[in-house]
């Protein structure tokens, strides 16, 4: 009985540790990060929500002056092994990737904060294949695969529910 209690206590403590790894970010937190990543000086308060996504894919028009310089989006809690990580991305009005950043990379995958590593994905569209030898970051194989898959999904949702739906801002 004592062993069972000890095992249950260990599982509970481990579970609390895993849930603490995921930061609680609000939409305002993501928008702030997106503005810094893109160099935007303001974000439109009217977010575009992808139809049929139940709010899972939102796109925030980002402006520099009066010009739309991109659309920001985020994915909260991408599951990688036993933890979750957040990802932000800026998409060009033509539906290609402008920039992205795994927000928790400094803790788990510092190389993914490196602009050189990330830049190989800039300009990609949702049809781009994953090239294992080129796209994997050493020590972050699963993270690389999961992030690229999520980026492709973001790009697909943007093209389907913003570009093709005629919801681009002028």
Multimeric organization: single chain
- The gross shape turns out to be globular
Q: Please summarize the sheet with the most strands.
A: 6 strands, antiparallel
Based on secondary structure, the structural category is alpha+beta
List the helices and strands and how they pair.
Elements: H1 2-21, H2 27-38, E1 42-43, E2 48-49, E3 58-64, E4 67-80, E5 83-91, E6 97-102, H3 105-108, H4 115-119, H5 132-135, H6 141-163
Antiparallel strand pairs: 1-3, 2-3, 3-4, 4-5, 5-6
Outline of the structure:
Helices cover 40% and strands 24% of the residues.
Output the keywords.
six-stranded antiparallel sheet; alpha+beta; 170 residues; single chain
Structural features, described:
The chain has six helices and six strands, in the order ααββββββαααα. With 170 residues, it is of the alpha+beta class. It has one domain. The N and C termini lie far apart (67 Å).
